[in-house]
Amino acid sequence: MRRILFKDVEVIATFDREGRELRNGWLLVEGNRIAALGEGEPPPGPFDEVIDGRDRVMIPGMVNTHHHMYQTLFRAVPGAADKKLFDWLVFLYERWRRIDEEAVYVSTIVAGMELLLSGCTTTTDHLYLFPRGKERLIDVQIEAARELGIRFHPTRGSMSLSRKDGGLPPEDVVQTEEEILSDSERLIREYHDTSFGAMVRVALAPCSPFSVTPELMRKTAELARRHGVLLHTHLAETVDEEKFCLERFGMRPVQYLEELGWLEGDVWLAHMVHVNAEEIAKIAEAGVGVAHCPSSNMLLGSGIAPIVEMLDAGVRVGLAVDGSASNDHSNMIREARQAMLVARVKYGAEAMPARRALRMATVGGAEVLHREDEIGSLEPGKCADLSLWDISGLEFSGAADPVAGLLHCGAQYADLVMVNGEILVRGGRLVNEKLYEHIPRHREIAGRLVGR
To answer: pLDDT of 256-291, one tens digit each?
Structure first.
């Protein structure tokens, strides 16, 4: 079994239940698990590799709880960049409808590269758009995730309401309920792995209340619970969505979800911007998780989610970069900084210390995905998912608190990233150099789809 020792790390921020931080720390990886960690003198060898942690901070690998990876092909699109959500969607559906297998593969690679370089080791993706004849796009994503080496939670999204049925998307990107449910079951059967440390787990994710029928929401939940997989959707993102739900269903989005049997502990929801205290208490009691997407919410002008109130109420909250057409990056450490800053705007500086934001990005995300026993903190027996940050550079000079400095001083890219015991980033660069060869093709595809 391969043994890798990290030694002389300035600070190891474990994000365990006690919030332990080890000074002059060491951490031993055996195979794909963390074997031991501590302060001062490390255990004796032999080791296959010893990594010097001087001028470095170590944190757990971050967990991205919501993304649309294909949208890396649609960043800063003229005509879309300054629209609110519904208008933004209608405009971009006309471009998104042209995606194919290659576009999905290459965009997943590029999004995953960004995530890995920014210290993210586990990511979800919400792919809900399936143009005619392109039904196996999730399979393509899983293949790309395996090339990347990232821990992957693809969610089989769905849309069944086109414009003619009162929805927003064009008819050629929606599917019938039979197609959606059949493919959802196939993906679970072929890819969902329940073993400890699994690299691929599948969830089911109808897009939103305004793009699927109530019947599909119920049937998807029944299917997911029959197979023991998680459920995910967008909810309460904008005032327009709230108005849609009130006009169409006679109730607010959270109440609508409750009526459908979705307020259960196997559900996590993206955004949750427009919710009140009663609704926060309800999701906390139900054990529903939340994916907080601060950059996307700001870029689209959707609002500031009441995340501090949710955390105080005991809601499981993780962090998310959301789609790269509404962010427009896939950088997790930047997202943690945004989460820290925007919460302070709404609630005051004391409401969101850097460590609270970093906790959302690490173990908070693991809790949302029901994987806190495997990932999200640095503890013996857990998966060896971690990141090491070089704090010797200009931007960190004078930082008295190196852990808080990751956010306060604006860290961008990790020096080293390990996933499942494999070093995927070293010296701030992806170890698999072939991944960089996808970037020129990604630019070509983006240009074609956007119409440049």
So the answer is: 999 999 999 999 999 999 999 999 999 999 999 999
SS3 content of the chain, % helix, strand, coil (to 5): 40, 20, 40
Q: What is the band of 77 on the pLDDT scale with cuts at 50, 70, 90?
A: confident
Contact 414, 389 (CB under 8 A): yes
Query: What residue spans define the domains of the chain?
Result: 64-85+118-368
* Strands 3-13 and 21-30, sheet pairing: antiparallel
* CA atoms of 30 and 36, how far apart (whole Å): 9
Q: What mean pLDDT, rounded, does the chain reach?
A: 95
- Residue 27, judged by CB atoms within 10 A of its CB (0-12, 13-18, 19+), counts as buried
pTM reported for the whole predicted model: 0.97
pLDDT exceeds cutoff 90 at 87 = no
The bridge status of strand 33-39 relative to strand 231-235 is unpaired
For 184-232, the pLDDT digits (tens) are: 999 999 999 999 999 999 999 999 887 899 999 999 999 999 999 999 9
How many helices and strands in the chain, by DSSP H and E? 15, 17
- SS3 state at 98: coil
Given 3.40.640.10, 3.20.20.140, 1.10.3720.10, 3.40.50.300, which CATH number is that of 64-85+118-368?
3.20.20.140
pLDDT band at 421 (very low <50, low <70, confident <90, very high): very high
Residue type, 45: G
Cα 229–chain centre separation? 17
Give every CB contact of residue 137 below 8 A, 6+ residues apart in sequence: 99, 101, 104, 127, 130
Render 289-347 in DSSP notation, one character per residue.
EEEE-HHHHHHTT-----HHHHHHHT-EEEE----TTSS----HHHHHHHHHHHHHHHH
Residue count of the chain: 452
